[in-house]
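Q: I have two molecules that I believe assemble together. Could you output structure tokens for the complex as a whole instead of separate predictions?
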Amino acid sequence: MGEPLLQIEDLHAGIPGREILRGVNLTLPAGQVHALMGPNGSGKSTLAQVLAGREDYTITQGRILFAGQDLAALKPHERAAAGLFLAFQYPVEIPGVTGMQFLRAAVNAVRKQRGEPELDPVAMLKRLREAAKLVDCNPDTLKRPVNEGFSGGEKKRNEVFQLAALAPRLAVLDETDSGLDIDALQVVAKGVNALRRPDRAFLVITHYQRLLNYIVPDVVHVLVEGRIVKSGDRTLALDLEREGYAAVEEKAAV
Amino acid sequence: MTTTDTIQDLVPDKYKYGFVTAIDADTAPPGLNEATIHLISDRKQEPDWLRQWRLKALKHWLTMKPPHWAFLRYPEIDYQAISYYSAPKPARKDGPQSLDEIDPQIRQTYEKLGIPLEEQKALAGVAVDAVFDSVSVATTFKKKLAELGIIFCPISEAVRDHPDLVRQYLGSVVPYTDNFYATLNSAVFSDGSFAYIPKGVRCPMELSTYFRINAQRTGQFERTLIVADEGAYVSYLEGCTAPMRDENQLHAAVVELVALKDATIKYSTIQNWYPGDAQGKGGIYNFVTKRGACRGARAHISWTQVETGSAITWKYPSCILQGDDSVGEFYSVAMTNHHQQADTGTKMIHIGQRTRSTIVSKGISGGHGQNSYRGLVKILPGARHSRNYTQCDSLLLGDQCGAHTFPYIEVRNSSSRAEHEASTSKIAEDQLFYCHQRGLDEENAVALIVNGFCREVFKELPMEFAVEANKLLAISLEGSVG
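A: Yes, here they are, computed for all two components at once.
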């Protein structure tokens, strides 16, 4: 097995005056898919943002090891180069910048940081077309400005496309299922499943069990009030669906 | 660190064209009076009609006051402290006969600037006329163009070799009485480019002029005249740089475009004059009058400008749409950093019926920069069924800079329509973080977002120069040098 890809130890983090994560412990080995569930306001998205390095949040205690490296020492773009990818809950529009320009800049920026040669335009196009095919995404998306005028579903699919193009070691999916109808959900899930590999891990953050019918997790964690109160196999997600978070919260409080 | 701080750290920039070339120059003593005009006319061995025209302009200029309506702040300029003529001393008395005879120092300067003076090294399809201080030093591809009947040469040469054409059109779009700076230019203009595209000819290559101010305490007053005869097409690009100097230098150019029936002129500018240092010391004062006349039916004039340099920019490339169904366009990116100020925009004067104009202006302000769009859309009573569309976007990169919009719209008939859209935005922290998460550092992220903001304008530039404009903008934004 070797060391886990992601190891979160006693993580406390928040914004000034308010602690949101209050001692998170989580171990995610390469090759696995873990789901992170929890009620609104439990800190799921905060954890995603902290992993990606958003400056609004401060780590006050604990640490995050990514492939053995302390993440706190890395800036957000360096984390990306190290192989961490966040599929945003609310993907951001970048007017006038085409998907092609954006991904070309991103892929080459990552390669440059890793000391790899930049891809020439032909190699880049080939790579992006392959990525599009892998997640069943229309390559014409590349010609449109990033997320501009995209529907909710298109934005989420575009996140998965970027994930395929950047081929990270760890993908954090922050409520990628929110706002999707069942068809879009299946397309997104299919894309994610196509990207599963023994050397890649996924942390799938979701409010609903529904997504986990399509992306089957190895482990489910339940986050309540900034702590992981329960972990288990995928049946835990089904329990949550049936009994609700309140029951789990009660049990956790005991 | 807040996003604003971060961006401001990035905005400071190094000006990579700030070197001085040590050459022997023939420079007139500072000051402006009739003797100055005679000196210029003598040096250039001009015909009497031109000398008289200059003298009329000087006489008129002496009665004028500089305009103060622009949203610009700068000390009064002492016009008697400026030298109005500076020319590199030629190795031969009758001037260079071929590119090989150009002073190697000047050639090196243009090489440093990336201007392809040597034909074998030239970008495929770009003919360059290079103006160094007051004098045009080389025109490439002249022979090839001549075979098609295209005239592309320094305007001083055109005065000598094609006097009828020059006399017919010079001052016909921008009369010598037009405004303070244009009148000054009419009196003292030293050189510039002249292009004439004959009837029905499509100019097969981009024509390009490169302007460079080198000498100290000189102004540059070039004059460009482009005439596209019936059915002709030409795409023209000008680029500009200057050395870094502590004092402000004056640049007052005039560009006149004439498009006859069914002719098209695309005029693109990449203006990167020295902008001054981070404290606002030095830099070029750029007071430019650019105007095109669509004289015949279906004539088409398109201005595209990328303005990243100069301490002060005062510039309104305009179109007079006389011919029925003629079209005027203005696409502009203006970037102000540090203490740069820009007051720029356009005038679209609709005279003919069914005339159409489009204005797309993108202003970017960083540091203490002040960026104003000023535009006039005037649709006269006879210009029935005319249309204008104006889009005016501002991007603020900090909280010390400013963006301003001064649109004037006059529609004098009921069948015409003018639309105006405007927006002001900041680079959102969300956008930056999104880019960072994909691997882009601060500099690359800002450059990418700003490029996206400018896209509608960049796509109007000829391919080779769109790349250059992208790079230039990135350099203006970043701390690094290309």
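A: One point stands out. Helices of chain A lie at 44-52, 76-82, 99-113, 121-134, 152-166, 182-194, 235-243, 245-253.
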